[in-house]
Amino acid sequence: MATTVAGLKIEAKENSKKIIRVYNPDTEDFTFNYHGQPHTIKALDYGEFSYKLGLHMKKHLIDHLINKRSLDPITQREEVAKEVAFDDK
To answer: Domain limits of the chain?
Structure first.
């Protein structure tokens, strides 16, 4: 991780070019709004998003699955996160 302003700017520029794939393991489509725009991952399918949006989508999808399944967010979060497999390109 960068520690200077110049380093942070370079890191932000590199991340803006990255694409993240997020998997929706649920049997229902998942939609959430980001800056007023709806974004959806179809049920049992992958969605590709910009780096920042992808990380945000992953967090909300994990929270959604934990709530839907009535799981403990402290002890089960990592297990659910493994289901929402993602990678960056």
So the answer is: 19-88
